[in-house]
Amino acid sequence: SGGEQQRVALARALAPNPRVLLLDEPFSNLDATLRLQVQRETLDILKRSATTAIFVTHSQEEAMVMGDVLAIMNKGMVEQIDPPAKIYHFPRSRFVADFVGVSSFVRAYVSGGMVISEIGSLNSPKGIRSGRDNIEIMIRPTQVSLRPSDSGQFKIVKKTFQGSFYIYDVVLPSGNVIKCSETYV
Prior knowledge:
By secondary structure, this protein is an alpha+beta fold.
């Protein structure tokens, strides 16, 4: 099976006790269930053998699971190198924010220590001065909550079932669309 072939290939690669191992899309031909199992086994083997691995993948989910440190590349150039959580929550560029996970962007401005946008206001992060116009804020679907409103200023235009939650496409008064996730009950 594909899983057994991957295990044998990994064993052969680790037999000479390399300090660094290059894994190029090692799980791409495995079905989802087998992929998760072989990923866990591979991580365990790599940690036990104290082998550093450079793992090449186009799968964001796989990168987040397998990597202690990720390098996000754009047109052959490295955009950001950081642990997965830092890349997800604190992307250094619009490309990284767009590339990793689901994100929406909303225009905003800074005034009186607040970042103000059409979906609300929040305290301004350190280093951003008041009086700045035309900034964008990145919003992850889990950062937005849906609540019924008599004013009806936002409109849900799409609802996508994702297993344990839904992703909603919400149109703002400006016409911009943001994504929101809500747990399925």
